[in-house]
Amino acid sequence: MTTLNQAWPVLILVAAFQFKHFVCDGPLQTKDMVIAKGYYGKSLGLLHAGLHGIGTWMVFFVSGLGAALCVALAVLDFVVHYHVDYIKENIVRKAGWTTADAQFWWALSADQMTHHFTYLGLIALSLTISFGHH
Question: How far is the C-alpha of 55 from the C-alpha of 133, rounded, in Å?
């Protein structure tokens, strides 16, 4: 049986990922990055996803995870984040949705939800690899 004391480290990781996501999708993201995310391979779209990968590495490294696992999880986040953004930007652009359309906000919400589910998956994967199946 899991106690609340055992759950705190996981809750702290979730909070750290929420903060990391805010920083990378907020203050560190430029308008040019937003535009570039819709065009595969553009350097600013890659930079945006790279910032997320670096943030993921930092969260896991500070939590005490081994260096190699931190890098692997950061690369996984980079790849997933890049493709989620690319897909969302292309759906919005091809549909012609703008901030005046409800569908734009639904797409943005789905994008954000997918990123946060990715963090839950990364945390679960890190725990599984670190502590095994019991």
Answer: 27
Return the closest-CA partner of residue 77 out of 126, 132, 12, 129: 126
Q: How many residues does the chain have?
A: 134
Euclidean distance between CA atoms 40 and 45, whole angstroms: 8
* Separation between Cα atoms, residue 27 and residue 126, nearest integer Å: 27
User: CB-based burial of residue 90 (10 Å sphere; 0-12 exposed, 13-18 middle, 19+ buried)?
Assistant: middle
The amino acid sitting at 11 is L
Alpha helices in the chain (DSSP H): 4-25, 31-36, 43-62, 67-95, 102-131
| CA of residue 103 relative to chain centroid, distance | 22
Q: Who's near 75: CB < 8 A, 6+ residues apart?
A: 53
pLDDT at 40: 98
One-letter amino acid for residue 99 of the chain: T
For 6-21, the pLDDT digits (tens) are 889 999 999 999 999 9
90: nearest Cα among 39, 52, 32, 33: 39
The pTM score is 0.92
